[in-house]
Amino acid sequence: SAAAIASIFGWMNLFARGLGGFASDAANTKMGMRGRLWTQTIFLACEGALVLVFANSNTLAGAIVIMIFFSLFVQAAEGSSYGIVPYVDPPNTGSVSGIVGAGGNTGAVGFGMGFRQLDYKEAFMIMGFAILGSSFLSVLINIKGYSGLFWGEDQVVSKETGATL
Q1: Segment 42-96, tens digit of pLDDT
Q2: What are phi and psi of 59, to 5 degrees?
Q3: E strand or H helix at 46, and its extent?
Q4: Cβ(128)–Cβ(48) under 8 Å?
């Protein structure tokens, strides 16, 4: 039934969000913050590209397969976002997490309104390009003490003293 097919998107949360966090942690081990940011950027770019493919799908079976992979990247991007959150403002991690979560809900409401005003293909195209745009904006992420995608270095902090080494 349609409800069972649509539930695939939600069921992906059970493992794909954790997969995104795991990928972020693995990239951090190899490349520091730059690895986390690349993971986020790649997941967002794949998500945006798959929304565009989904918008142009012509068969139900094709749309379902694309939705499964799209959902995987949506949830993985969310997991990778929460891999970055603790570094943004360490004393206020809860507040930053709340803002990140609220941003997702705000996007859902905004795109929901778009789907009410536009035909589905046009709304999905706008969504896909917005997601791709956000992945390109990852270049501008600059967290104090950590490298960005293309510049800077992570500062090493002593766990005993808290001093920069």
Answers
A1: 999 999 999 999 999 999 889 889 988 998 999 999 999 999 999 998 888 899 9
A2: -125, 155
A3: helix 33-55
A4: yes
Please state whether 152 falls in left (phi above 0), alpha (psi between -120 and 50) or beta. Answer: left
Q: Which two tokens stand for residue 92?
A: 């206020």
Long-range contacts from 74-77, C-beta under 8 angstroms, 24+ separation: 74/9, 74/12, 74/16, 74/47, 75/12, 75/13, 75/16, 75/17, 75/19, 75/20, 76/16, 76/17, 76/19, 76/20, 76/23, 76/43, 77/20, 77/40, 77/43, 77/44, 77/47
Tell me the CA distances in angstroms from 24 to 27, 36, 41, 99, one per residue in order: 5, 5, 11, 20
> In Å, what is the CA distance from 22 to each residue of 40, 120, 122, 132?
12, 33, 34, 22
